[in-house]
UniProtKB/TrEMBL annotation:
Belongs to the ATP-dependent AMP-binding enzyme family. Residues 24-81 form the Acetyl-coenzyme A synthetase N-terminal domain. Its EC number is 6.2.1.1. CoA binds at R192, G193, G194, K195, T310, S523, R584. It comes from the Bacteria. Keywords: Acetylation, ATP-binding, Ligase, Magnesium, Metal-binding, Nucleotide-binding. This is Acetyl-coenzyme A synthetase. SUPFAM superfamilies: Acetyl-CoA synthetase-like. The gene is acsA. Residues 531-609 form the AMP-binding enzyme C-terminal domain.
Length: 648
């Protein structure tokens, strides 16, 4: 059905693109046949203190996995994101900060100002005893200091670990201890959706279980009265006022660590993914520029939080390395009302807007009147990331937000990949709603049967793996290289295993069908959860759906669907029958839902991903072992689902 729908790049996108369709094909072929030549050229987009002469030195050979790029190069990322722009665009806005409260003042931080803020923070960190290679945990809301702190660490060679400001003291303590941070950067409080978050109090609690922390640097943000502990706690503004506004960027080897980031935990205990310097920044800046076809002067807004990899690569490092204007938004899409995103787009004349399917589906569920009220004429391109986007949500985004004229860029990637691996390049690659389309330069996706047989024909279905290393790839899991090797390189030897299932269509387009663990086996037929969910969401009364398997006497596995309705729709038996028939018609009798449960909310990670692992437990009636729930956004949702579980 939806596969038949193809959107060719618009004339406007073709006229302005950095990469045409022919160039994409030629460059892609070159990037995989001659990675050394291709990436040596691409590396020139970065200012090196010493240019690399060794380009790729990586092997996926189990168990001796080793990944290195540009290994004799020397550079500093903060200098690449700030200093090198100062001569030409010191007065250009680097970061627009939009506060949670729409009545509060936005901030416009120029590259010159950014240089000063980051240098002062770097000097403060040094004064607190932070040295090259030390770990610093950043537990901040979406305020400019989060970006300053990351760049300050990069400037002095400290390794940052950003922990999302919504996490509990326990989750924070676990992440501090895992990487032995000796400094934590936080704020008195954070603001989100009109509420305050007691960040400093959370840190105080966390540190009872994290004795290795020596200093806490505290941003004076809401002005709330907080306890400052003697010699341990230091106010950022006071310390910053007492240091020089210059700080020489530390020469870093390309393979020196840049950051640790814990994955969002959809499938289990989060992993401390480690990224290094040279390959990461080459890949972040190139993908940011080409995926969004970014041009000087454009205003770019990615709504992610800096606590997630999207915030690292596509709010901070990629855009700033490219001298872009990037927006940081403190709030949420539904505060003070569900028109907020569109109001901010108009206010800052956003050209490129990048968000997640979870937000798109929620806004779709709220109706079109909010988006219709907005002008949105500044928009040129729309991005999506984080989960498979249902074709229905894609079309809604295209029609209502893009008004039919914006390119849509669905970007598939992971914390471990550092940057986008599969995505259309606007102006070069035609899109199909629901498909992330084709691989980026240097990326060789392959499809394997679950048993590990390489599927060589174009049209194929199975497990998504990658054949060769690319510069942005994670190098290890902090402190646990053997977990890195066993998680990603053991199941399918010689390849990087993504954990995602996919389908490749006759045009070579990739369709992510969900996590491999979530693929259903119904009477011997393999069905992706994403496909059934998309069929449900394509029903006019459904706003969101999550599908899992449960043990079924006859079929092996049955199909259990959690369904959230559009606001105002009534949930009754008649609608259940209608939905069952609907899916049957859309996909086929094999996909007919066995059980449907109305779900006012779905369990999601803090980054908005549906946690099917928990839904599976509820469907299986196995409430005792829900596993790690520390990354859940709203635990109350689970209680409701358990209470209303369908009887069988
Ligand atoms: P964990 O690895 O701890 O279970 P996680 O995989 O949710 O957590 P992330 O690295 O944030 O942590 O998410 C990457 C995953 O998100 C991908 O493996 C994929 O399943 C999903 N994903 C991201 N972008 C897309 C997209 N555009 N289309 C389909 N799936 C996507
Ligand atoms: Mg993952």
């Amino acid at each position: 059905m939806s596969e038949q729908l193809v959107f060719q790049p618009s004339a406007a996108a073709i006229a302005r693109t950095h990469v045409t369709k022919d160039q994409y094909e030629q460059l892609y072929a070159r990037s995989v046949s001659d990675p050394n030549g291709f990436w040596a050229e691409q590396a020139q987009r970065i200012d090196w203190m010493k240019s690399p002469t060794i380009i790729k030195n990586s092997t996926f050979q189990y168990p001796d996995v080793s990944i290195k790029w540009f290994e004799d190069g020397v550079l500093n990322i903060s200098a690449n994101c700030i200093d090198r722009h100062l001569v030409e665009r010191g007065d250009q806005v680097a970061i627009i900060w939009e506060p949670d409260d729409p009545k509060a003042e936005a901030e416009y931080i120029t590259y010159a100002k950014l240089h000063e803020k980051v240098s002062r923070c770097a000097n403060v960190l040094k004064s607190l005893g932070v040295r090259k290679g030390d770990r610093v945990t950043i537990y901040l809301p979406m305020i400019p200091q989060a970006a300053y702190a990351m760049l300050a660490c990069a400037r002095i060679g400290a390794i940052h670990s950003v922990v999302f400001g919504g996490f509990s003291p326990d989750a924070l303590a676990g992440r501090i201890n895992d990487c032995d941070s000796k400094v934590v950067i936080t704020a008195d409080e954070g603001r989100r959706g009109g509420k305050t978050v007691p960040l400093k109090a959370n840190v105080d609690k966390a540190l009872q279980d994290a004795p290795g922390v020596e200093k806490v640097l505290v941003v004076h943000n809401t002005g709330a009265d907080v306890l400052m502990k003697g010699s341990r706690d230091v106010w950022w503004h006071e310390a910053a006022a007492g240091v020089e506004p210059f700080c020489d960027p530390e020469p870093m080897n390309a393979e020196d660590p840049l950051f640790i980031l814990y994955t969002s935990g959809s499938t289990g205990k989060p992993k401390g993914v480690l990224h290094t310097t040279g390959g990461y920044i080459v890949y972040a800046s190139l993908t940011h520029q080409l995926n969004f076809d970014y041009r000087d002067g454009e205003v770019y807004w990615c709504t992610a939080d800096v606590g997630w990899v999207t915030g690292h690569t596509y709010i901070v490092y990629g855009p700033l390395a490219n001298g872009a204007t990037t927006v940081m938004f403190e709030g949420i899409p539904s505060y003070p009302d569900v028109g907020r995103f569109w109001e901010v787009v108009d206010k800052h004349k956003i050209n490129i807007f990048h968000t997640a399917p979870t937000a798109i589906r929620a806004l779709m569920g709220a109706g079109t009147e909010w988006v219709e009220k907005a002008d949105l004429s500044s928009l040129r391109l729309l991005g999506t990331v984080g989960e498979p986007i249902n074709p229905e949500a894609w079309m809604w985004y295209h029609k209502n937000v893009g008004r039919g004229r914006c390119e849509i860029v669905d970007t598939w990637w992971q914390t471990e990949t550092g940057g986008v691996l599969i995505s259309p390049l606007p102006g070069a690659i035609a899109t199909k709603p629901g498909s992330a389309t084709l691989p980026f330069f240097g990326v060789e996706p392959i499809v394997l049967s679950p048993e590990g047989r390489l599927q060589e024909q174009t049209k194929a279905e199975g497990v998504l793996a990658i054949k060769e290393s690319w510069p942005g790839q994670a190098r290890t899991i902090w402190g646990d290289h053997s977990r890195f090797v066993s998680t990603y390189f053991e199941t399918y030897k010689g390849y990087y295993f993504t954990g995602d299932g996919c389908r490749r269509d006759e045009d070579g387009y990739y369709w992510i069908t969900g996590r491999v663990d979530d693929v259903l086996n119904i009477s011997g037929h393999r069905l992706g959860t994403a496909e059934i969910e998309s069929a449900l969401v394509s029903h006019p009364k459904v706003s969101e759906a999550a599908v899992v398997g449960y043990p079924h006497d006859l079929k092996g596995q049955g199909i259990y669907c959690y369904v959230t309705l559009m606001s105002g729709e009534t949930s009754d038996e008649a609608l259940k029958i209608e939905l069952r028939n609907w899916v049957r018609k859309e996909i086929g009798p094999i996909a007919t839902p066995d059980l449907i449960q109305w779900a006012p909310g779905l369990p999601k990670t803090r980054s908005g991903k549906i946690m099917r692992r928990i839904l599976r437990k509820v469907a299986e009636n196995d409430f005792g072992s829900l596993g790690d729930t520390s990354t859940l956004a709203d635990p109350a949702v689970v209680t409701d689902l358990i209470e209303n579980r369908q009887n069988r």
